[in-house]
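Q: Hi! First time asking for a complex rather than a single chain. Here are the components, and I think there are two in total. Is that enough to go on?
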Amino acid sequence: DGGITQSPKYLFRKEGQNVTLSCEQNLNHDAMYWYRQDPGQGLRLIYYSQIVNDFQKGDIAEGYSVSREKKESFPLTVTSAQKNPTAFYLCASRQKGWDTYEQYFGPGTRLTVT
Amino acid sequence: AQSVTQLGSHVSVSEGALVLLRCNYSSSVPPYLFWYVQYPNQGLQLLLKYTSAATLVKGINGFEAEFKKSETSFHLTKPSAHMSDAAEYFCAVHSSNTGKLIFGQGTTLQVKP
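A: Yes, that's all I need. Here is the structure of the assembled complex.
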């Protein structure tokens, strides 16, 4: 089955540690996205990538980093510089094309930093 | 710039009652609009999308939405609520300026037995 996988589902880290969240898709989609979700704040875009080896900052990129070395993979690193990293993180992808603007989401990773 | 506003952060209905979740958009160009559903601790699932074809769009799980340009609205409806419809619902618009999806703040639907 085609889809987006995120691992792990739950992640716990100590303050001051970097942590990398995995996102893999086998939909052959060109674009991939990372969102952060906090209660009552909807979805906020962290980073996105339209093509391999290229990515752009979203609305809240500070304290995060990404890479896009392969079409199917878009890992997100939450660095120790992120002030409040505890949140639900969602990865999404989209097939670029005429009239295809919908994004498809993975199951999410809940990160807790203490 | 495009934006969406969801009216009501919480909506409560009885099982079997009509579901109406409101979404208004702002756009200077013909918009591409979407409704997503999110169950607890899960990702978002696409319910339906409007891409300037028919104004009444049918989606999954018995939901539909009507695009009304005069009212700049794209409200989501379902004739009869089921307990399994309890979830959070997000309206989104594609931004032609940035290429991003702009999401509303979400509406939590509670279904009472």
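A: The interface with chain A takes residues 9, 32, 34, 36, 41-46, 49, 51, 90, 94, 99-101, 103-106 of chain B (CB under 8 Å). Let me know if you'd like any chain examined more closely.
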